[in-house]
């Protein structure tokens, strides 16, 4: 038997303990392994390789600009 905990997003996001037989746990876990030929997106948005140059230019501009005046 395998006991694991996960968030139940259907019911208020509370943590739930599940107990499964080993073979059932392996079967449910294997469903999440993509086929060999399937492309998986690992990076999206600012982490994408094609965005590195654009994000670097933006961050350089932000860091070079003078800080905003402090207001109380």
From TrEMBL:
Q: Which GO terms describe its biological process?
A: DNA transposition
The identity of this protein, by name, is Transposase
Quote the Pfam families the UniProt record gives.
Answer: Y2_Tnp
One Gene Ontology term of the molecular function aspect: DNA binding
Q: Which domain of life is it from?
A: Bacteria
Chain ranges of the Transposase IS801/IS1294 domain: 2-53
